[in-house]
Amino acid sequence: MTHKPPTYIVNLILMATCSCPVFSATGIAHSDMESFDTVIPALMSRWNIPGAAVAVMKEGRLIFARGYGYADKSKNELVMPDSLFRIASISKPITATCVMRLVEQGRISLDTKVFPFLDLGVPSDTRINQITVRNLLEHTGWLGS
């Protein structure tokens, strides 16, 4: 005599399977990094993200690179480990954090004049030489004459 699971359990399993999109993964799978192949697709499903690339480095070496989902669903084009994405405004807080680390290390000051520091040559408008790191971080212009 075989045991038949209740219908509602079968329905729950089917609904769970059908409601979670399957994300193809590209790149080399590593058994010691398999949690990424579970966590990343789950996050993508939760936040309705069609594609993502993940890279992990250790001691300056790339140890894991995988693409998940689609770069272009309409063309059935998968995300590859080296696919490029638009970064949009996410670069602003990352850049600001890096700049503030340089300030903490004493390598620059918020009042450092940016363009003379960069040594890009003689500008056509010398007022540009008055713009500071603080001005750039605060999105303010130099108010001098």
From TrEMBL:
SUPFAM superfamilies: beta-lactamase/transpeptidase-like. Residues 36-140 form the Beta-lactamase-related domain. It holds the Pfam family Beta-lactamase. It comes from the Bacteria. InterPro entries: AmpC-like, Beta-lactam-related, Beta-lactam/transpept-like. This is N-acyl-D-amino-acid deacylase. It comes from Nitrosomonas oligotropha. The lineage of its organism: Bacteria, Pseudomonadati, Pseudomonadota, Betaproteobacteria, Nitrosomonadales.
